[in-house]
Design goal:
Layout: E1 4-6, H1 10-20, H2 26-44, E2 50-56, E3 61-67, E4 71-78, H3 82-89, E5 96-97, E6 99-104, E7 111-117, E8 125-130, E9 133-134, H4 138-149, E10 154-162, H5 164-173, E11 178-184, E12 187-188, E13 194-195, H6 201-206
Parallel strand pairs: 1-11, 4-5, 4-6, 4-8, 8-10, 9-10, 10-11
Antiparallel strand pairs: 2-3, 6-7, 12-13
Helix pairs in contact: 1-2, 2-3
Length: 209
Amino acid sequence: MKNVHVLDHPLIQHKLTFIRDVNTGNKDFRELVDEVATLMAYEVTRDLPLEEYVVQTPVAKARTKVIAGKKLGVVPILRAGLGMVDGILRLVPHARVGHIGLYRDPETLSPVTYYSKLPSDIEDRDFIVVDPMLATGGSAVAAIRILQKLSARSIKLMCLIAAPEGIEAVNQACPDIEIYVAHVDQKLNDHGYIVPGLGDAGDRLFGTK
């Protein structure tokens, strides 16, 4: 699949099993999503450029590496994307966090934007858009296009689970976007839910129905 990176690390796959489990409670679900987001962030940030840096150790000077001043932004798609933010910030605590609020019209399944608050220096930042589920792809495409219109320097999409239909939708609308997922599931059902999926990620994160 074009531009799709499936992160099959054993720890990610192990934790994803319990994220899917209907018997996993809200507290454990939140903690597992947070942990998987941290593990995935290692791979999503793998291509950050480095520059040489000299540090004094207790023994001698060492020529080492630091990230080359790259500005990062994390944009969760509200509300379920919020569950993945802290896991990324644990690795890149200086990243700026924007928010895009979208909901899916129950009749058309098309995304409707109701909120957008983003860093002022968008054109100088590389963004990671996060949402646990890539189902129809409508919300992801809408969020990506908001950032593209504001001239974001680069954009990646990071999701726990994706449906083939969602991947195809993003690839068709935004062919240059790299997609990072923990698993690609079978399909969407008639209601636009991923099968087997994990249910409604927002409800399971926040204990709502």
